[in-house]
């Protein structure tokens, strides 16, 4: 649709019937590149499906299932990062942090802060400007200790950087133009 409301193209997505498998309805649309869109919608209250559709061929390129809407497309549109889904009614202790890039998920390989066993991912994944790394802010459930996990595309290893920000303080993460990692509160900034 153009900014004047002219329809340029319609892309049939899925037939609507009583036997739909996957997302119940579309909750989000975003451009992946000039040639593809991601269509997102929840399957149940904790699992979301993200479907990448080729605009020209009108075909599904790939679909991903995630734990919540935690799904990020790299700036170059070639990679995706997400938190792998867990069974909908799994207890909090069994919801392990599983950071995925494309089809490669790292189950139970999260580097842990000393003595910590249960990390929860916070609500954003931040890609580096060159699309080679993704960062995730995580928080340990009982101690509220926060760390930044970093994973490179194609690498089966996570790096972890502890952030000494006090509990309850707003913490943001990002990347510098020179690929440095930044974490900041309203009062303090850390760079790696």
Any key phrases for this structure?
192 residues; mainly beta; four-stranded antiparallel β-sheet; 0% helix; globular
Description of the structure:
With 192 residues, the protein is mainly β. The protein is 0% helix and 43% strand. It has no helices and 15 strands. The strands form four sheets. Strands 1-2-3-4 form a four-stranded antiparallel beta sheet, with no helix packed on it. It is globular, with a radius of gyration of 18 Å. The model is unreliable at 111-117 (pLDDT under 50).
Task: Return the average pLDDT rounded to an integer.
Answer: 81
Helix percentage: under 10%
Q: Span between N and C termini?
A: 43 Å
Q: Can you list the strand order of the major beta sheet?
A: 1-2-3-4
Quick synopsis:
The protein is an all-beta fold and 192 residues long. 0% of the residues lie in helices and 43% in strands.
Task: Please specify the SSE layout and strand pairing.
Layout: E1 28-33, E2 36-42, E3 47-54, E4 60-67, E5 71-73, E6 80-83, E7 99-101, E8 104-106, E9 119-127, E10 133-140, E11 146-152, E12 158-163, E13 172-175, E14 181-184, E15 189-191
Antiparallel strand pairs: 1-2, 2-3, 3-4, 5-6, 6-7, 7-8, 9-10, 10-11, 11-12, 13-14, 14-15
């Amino acid at each position: 649709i153009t900014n004047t409301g002219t329809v340029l193209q319609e892309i049939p997505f899925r037939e609507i019937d009583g036997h739909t498998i996957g997302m119940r309805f579309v909750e989000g649309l975003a451009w992946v590149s000039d040639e593809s869109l991601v269509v997102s919608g929840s399957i149940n209250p904790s699992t979301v499906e993200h479907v990448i559709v080729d605009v020209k061929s009108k075909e599904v390129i790939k679909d991903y299932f995630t734990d919540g809407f935690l799904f990020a497309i790299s700036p170059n549109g070639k990679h995706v990062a997400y938190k792998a889904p867990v069974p909908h009614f799994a207890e909090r202790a069994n919801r392990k942090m599983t950071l995925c890039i494309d089809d490669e998920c790292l189950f139970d390989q999260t580097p842990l802060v000393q003595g910590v066993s249960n990390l929860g991912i916070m609500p954003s994944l931040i890609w580096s400007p060159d699309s080679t790394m993704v960062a995730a802010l995580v928080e340990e459930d009982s101690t509220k200790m926060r760390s930044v996990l970093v994973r490179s595309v194609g690498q089966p290893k996570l790096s972890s950087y502890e952030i000494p920000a006090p509990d309850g303080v707003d913490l943001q993460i990002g990347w510098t133009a020179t690929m440095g990692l930044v974490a900041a509160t309203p009062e303090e900034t850390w760079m790696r």
